[in-house]
Amino acid sequence: MTRDDVEKKVKEITARVLKVDINKIETKHRFAQDLGAESIQSIELVAAFEDGFEIEMDEDEALTVTAVGPAVDYIFKVVQAQHG
Amino acid sequence: MKLVIFEDSSYSNFFPLTYPRPVFELRCGASSLAAKIERQVGQRADAYLCREYLAETLAPRSGATKINDLGFIKPGEEVLFVNGRILAKSDWKFPVEPGCFGCEGKIGWWRTRADVTKIKTYADLLAAAGTERKKACGAKCFEYMWEVMLESVHVIADDFKAAGKSGVQSPLRPDVAVYGDKTLLAISEGVEIHPFVCLDTRNGPITIEAGTEIHPFTRIEGPCYVGPKCTILGAKIREGCSFGPVCRVGGEVEESIIHGYSNKYHDGFLGHAYVCEWVNLGALTTNSDLKNDYGSVEVHVNGGLVSTGSTKVGSMIGDHVKTSIGTLLNTGSVVGTFALLMAIGKPLPKFIPPFAWYLEGVICKGFGKKSLFETAKTAMGRRKKEWTDADLRLYETIHKLTDEERMVYIRKGRKQMAGN
């Protein structure tokens, strides 16, 4: 899976969980301030990323990621580590 | 003679209550199982044997008692090993006869002069004691966690008798009603009982320890033990309750044990429950303790359901659990250490793994253990207690020990959350 594949999927999942238009999601967007994620939705997002990418993320690490771009970087790193 | 209190391999039958403490520190009646053994033997334990990961946090509570180290015992000296699951009531005397006495297939107690200095674990103890067992020890030996809670109502009365300190040391206002025999009250100095409190001793004694405050319109039925510095807030405390130090209790509580520093401040029913330390039950949190068909309650133990044989079993709640307002706990629920529960308007699942979050009807990782530990630090600070590095290591270990089981539930929850 390439970084572009990860970015595409992160945006799809973010759009579905936060119920926002996928075309309006940019990598600079922050989940809470720009995309309107409430605290429980951030937990849903982590669960949805784990389910979607079939990975296990360290929740303490994952929840320090607050924007789309860093989420792509972090998930790409975890995917590489867990799926090669 | 040296006294050694040990926990055997049955400690997991008491999870989550025994994740952060040895079995012999479970509360039953007015004190722990270890305190009763010490009382009946007539001396403090010289050593404890328990899981190694508990040693660091147990040490500050143990004073001079050694932990997992019997190297101080002199060769040929008499040693009495006692299983920490034994309930040593006030009429029980440990026989002076040497030998190893069985208890439900485990060692009940062993009185010996053998060289025991190398013993560090229950496995070592088993090997040293050999396979020969004398007759069953005859003492009550708890097998499962709910038995401790069910027996406590009788043990409170027994502990009152053994303490022999009946009397009212704090002034009682004329508008405080003692309904029943006043000699069944043991009220320490520094207890403040507000107007319109009813102390009902018709069915058993009531002990209220120093520094406790009982607010108006509280009714306490004996047998009951209220530990030091508690606050009872206009509550209906029905028979058989035992509260550790610095608890805040409101609403309706029946035949329940609450360890120290836990809060059930508001309305809501807690019955036949066992609540560990640093728990906060949100307003209107209620547990069921009786099934609608009056059948035997089943409880989650070691990954399976065990029938308790009792129609009355409430919730078993681990240390540092937090519940939201309006949480409804099913009959015989087990809530793991550090679990965080959010109400969903109907009874929650009967088992919530340690460190799991129950949000919007699914079990998930939530904000993770770091956030839970930060909350614990804050909660303990409010009671002038420190969250230490040893606490951190203890709970990190428990988190690791329970990871596999928790992840099974979290993966299932993740699927539910993703709508798969």
Task: Offer a quick outline of the entry.
By secondary structure, chain A is mainly alpha-helical. Chain A has helices spanning 3-18, 39-53, 59-62, 68-83.
Tell me what the structure shows.
The complex is a heterodimer of chains A (84) and B (420). By secondary structure, chain A is mostly helical. Chain A has one domain (3-83): ACP-like (Non-ribosomal Peptide Synthetase Peptidyl Carrier Protein, Chain A, Orthogonal Bundle). Chain A is built from four helices and no strands. Chain A is globular. The model of chain A has no long low-confidence stretch (mean pLDDT 91). Chain B is of the alpha/beta class. Chain B has a domain at 2-143: Spore Coat Polysaccharide Biosynthesis Protein SpsA, Chain A (Alpha-Beta Complex). In chain B, 21% of the residues lie in helices and 28% in strands. In chain B, the strands form eight sheets. Chain B has a ten-stranded parallel sheet with strand order 12-14-17-20-22-24-27-32-35-37, covered by helices on one side. The longest helix of chain B has 19 residues, at 145-163. The model of chain B has no long low-confidence stretch (mean pLDDT 95). Chains A and B meet through helix 2 and helix 3 of A and helix 5 and helix 7 of B.
Q: Which H/E pattern describes the elements of chain A? A: HHHH
Secondary structure class of chain A reads mainly alpha
CATH architectural category of chain A: Orthogonal Bundle
Cα(first) to Cα(last) distance of chain B is 64 Å
Main beta-sheet strand count, sense and barrel state of chain B = 10 strands, parallel
Mean pLDDT of chain B: 95
Please count the helical segments of chain B.
7
Count of separate DSSP helical elements of chain A: 4
Largest sheet entry of chain A: none
Shape of chain B: globular
Please identify which CATH superfamily of chain A we are dealing with.
ACP-like
CATH names the topology of chain A as Non-ribosomal Peptide Synthetase Peptidyl Carrier Protein, Chain A
Give the proportion of residues in helices of chain A: 55-70%
What's the total count of β strands of chain B? 39
Unreliable stretches of chain A: none
Compute the gyration radius of chain B: what is it? Answer: 22 Å
Question: What is the CATH architecture assignment of one domain in chain B?
Answer: Alpha-Beta Complex
Structural class of chain B: alpha/beta
The proportion of residues in beta strands of chain A is under 5%
